[in-house]
From TrEMBL:
It is found in: Mitochondrion inner membrane. It comes from Taeniopygia guttata. Its EC number is 3.4.21.-. Heterodimer of 2 subunits, IMMPL1 and IMMPL2. This is Mitochondrial inner membrane protease subunit. The lineage of its organism: Eukaryota, Metazoa, Chordata, Craniata, Vertebrata.
């Protein structure tokens, strides 16, 4: 009578079988976790891009709140004054003589300056300092403006670096509030009042 052979599985075989079964059961769970994590990351990235675009458009086409620092626009704008600048005027070429504007510095594009528009293209302007005995004059070239600080004796402006291209104008100052003896007592109060327009804070130097 023939002997029947029954297959057996040793301890190592059982461990391998259990490992394969456990791996098969955990694989879908890990895939779901990975998909959820990637989905959240992409959604967060999408919201960040959307909010960034909205903020950029608001700052670029509406305006922002600016904290001024420096003596060159005294007495009109004092050190630490808070001003609101609007950007629509520069987009529609509505900048006029006498306007106070925020401009990218011709000497340092990473910084902004605050000056008054003294001349537009074609205007004859005085290029001398107040202390000069002999006065010199020049004409503003096309597509440029002539900028000067109200504090002529303590201002670095077009008398030093010449006419400024119109494209460097970032905005026109239309409202001012003082941080010490003005309408508002501190920066936080002013920011809370203007948050319906913009929360764009930047330090504006007026050398």
């Amino acid at each position: 009578m023939g002997a029947r052979v029954v297959g057996t599985c040793g301890a190592g075989g059982w461990r391998r079988a259990r490992w394969r079964a456990g791996r098969a059961s955990w694989a879908p769970y890990h895939c779901r976790m990975l998909r959820n994590a990637l989905g959240k990351a992409f959604r967060f990235l999408g919201y960040t891009v959307q909010y960034g675009c909205i903020a950029h458009c608001a700052f670029e086409y509406l305006g922002g709140i600016v904290v001024c620092s420096g003596p060159s626009m005294e007495p009109t704008i004092q050190n630490s004054d808070i001003v609101f600048s609007e950007s629509l005027s520069r987009h529609f070429y509505c900048i006029r003589k006498g306007d106070i504007v925020i401009v990218k510095s011709p000497n340092d594009p990473k910084s902004n300056i605050c000056k008054r528009v003294i001349g537009l293209e074609g205007d004859k302007v005085c290029t001398s300092n107040p202390s000069d005995f002999l006065k010199s004059h020049s004409y503003v070239p096309k597509g440029h403006v002539w900028l000067e600080g109200d504090n002529l004796r303590n201002s670095t402006d077009s008398r030093c670096y010449g006419p400024v291209p119109y494209g460097l104008i970032r905005g026109r100052i239309c409202l001012k509030c003082r941080t010490q003896l003005g309408l508002y007592e501190n920066v936080e109060h002013a920011a809370a009042h203007f948050n319906c327009y913009s929360l764009n804070f930047c330090l504006l130097y007026t050398p």
